[in-house]
Amino acid sequence: MRIPGAIVYPCVALALFPASAALAQEPYQLGLGYKLLDEITVGGYLSTEFSRGENLNEVLIEDLAVLTYGNLTDNLSFLLELESVDFYKLDLENDTDSSNTRPAIERLYADYKVSDYASFRVGKQITPIGYWNLQPINVLRETTSNPRLSREMFPKFVTGLSVQGFTPFDETLHYTAYLQNTGDMDAKYINIDVDQHYGLTLEKVLSPQWKMGGSIGKFREKNRNRTQYFQLNTRYDNDRYSFLTEGVVDRHEQWLGGTETSTSVYAQFEYRVVPEHALIARAEAFRDDRVALHEKIGILGYSYRPLFPVSLKLEYQWHADSSNNRLVGSFSILF
Amino acid sequence: MRTLLAAILLLSLPAHAAEYAVVVSSKSTVQSMEIAKIKDIFLKKRSFEGDLRIVPVNPLGNDPARTRFESQVLNMNREEINRYWVNNHFQGVSPPTTQASLQSIKRFIETVDGAIGYLPIDMVDTGLRIVHEY
Questions:
Q1: Which residue range forms the structural domain that includes residue B44?
Q2: Could you report the per-residue pLDDT of A262-297, keeping only the tens digit for each?
Q3: How far is A146 from chain B (nearest CA, A)?
Q4: Is residue B10 part of a domain?
Q5: Which of A15, A23, A178, A287 could link A162 by a cystine bridge, Cβ 3.0 to 4.6 Å?
Q6: Cβ–Cβ of A25/B94 closer than 8 Å?
Q7: Under an 8 A CB cutoff, do B99 and A13 touch?
Q8: Quick one: which H or E segment has residue B9?
Q9: Which CATH architecture has domain A5-334?
Q10: Could you report the predicted ipTM of this complex, rounded to two decimals?
């Protein structure tokens, strides 16, 4: 008997081979979530951080989040992520503390997969630009801090519709087109408050080690200012080291008149001494003509992963304005 | 002359005969598959062959068929694979389903529409179709 539909296979397996099916699930493994009913996974992450610098001495539980995802039918799946940012903050410089236990919807979407060439996503999702924005949580990153590029040049999230897949004429080329025409589903932790945003991302796999891509898009903030952005990225990975770089140019059209630009670029090199220990160097440049800001940042970091989903990191940041120099460390875990 | 013939015969044999095969049901519409596509399917970068939704299945744990598949077809070691799935857990993608034994994998592939797995070649019978050998 042929059974249509992958969604029924756990039931089929249990019915046909109860003894083997009962033993068929991998035991829980840290970093891969806990499987419920074979088709639903539950997990989360936690990160803690400390920063020391001139007039800065703080410890915080930065992120506490839970996520769940799974398949509803053969082609329909979902993901929900709830997160509390700055869950607890202890300011040792000013001897104060604060907490934020209210979780916000970081992501909530449904995917409908038609083929490998077209998969639709509806809901709040990460804007699919570059490398850093797609891995925004501490435990998956190489350093505790984010480049400014990922925080200030484009909205981190899209609340709307996207379609992605391989291009039929070149299966090493992947595209994502995205569209937002409303406010954010949960604006608590967003970086730019927009009510309209659309764009296109392309990524080309040049070899198993080399990838490159880029994005072009436009968004309108709730204050009616409009921004067009153009972004490029490339990455090289092998088992010993990785190199990645991203650059973005923004053209801002102010509602009250006037056009200005901002640019941001970073290049990062990671050398894995052994799989658990890595050294990281990053150089960033950021320029925003709207506020006449020119910033240059150099970072040297060390990362220790006793297991891949457990990360201990330490970095020193040199800023063009030396009063912003700081030592930053973190512990993070994905479960 | 006899030595020369023996040498030619030896050179004409494959370096080593394939011991394992990637298989689908013999009733499947899938006739063959390139190794790059098999890799993408087991890493869940792709899910379709034509209109057919593909369901990859792994044997549980460190079965020799699995370790050989990972090194020769995926071209990754277990640590790289674990890192890959940890990154994908955050993106809402989990590893392929597993079965406890090679026998249950064989029955799974024969029974579930779109299933694809790998087995020792000597387990392949008329209920299965080989799409790649390794």
A1: 17-133
A2: 999 999 999 999 989 999 999 999 999 888 889 999
A3: 17
A4: no
A5: A178
A6: no
A7: yes
A8: helix B2-12
A9: Beta Barrel (2.40)
A10: 0.87
Q: Do A2 and B99 count as a contact with CB atoms less than 8 A apart?
A: no
- What CATH number is associated with residue B42? 3.40.190.10
Question: What is the domain count for chain B?
Answer: 1
- The three-class DSSP label of residue B8 is helix
Are A91 and A57 in contact by the 8 Å Cβ rule? The answer is yes
Between the CA atoms of B47, A109, A233 and A114, what dihedral angle is there, to the nearest 10 degrees? Answer: 30
- B29 in reach of chain A (CB within 8 A): no
pTM, two decimal places: 0.88
State the Cα torsion B42-A238-A240-A63 to the nearest 10°: -60
Distance CA B59, CA A167 (A): 32
Q: B74-123 pLDDT, tens per residue?
A: 999 888 999 999 999 999 999 999 999 999 999 999 999 999 999 999 99
Distance from CA of B15 to the nearest CA of A (A): 26
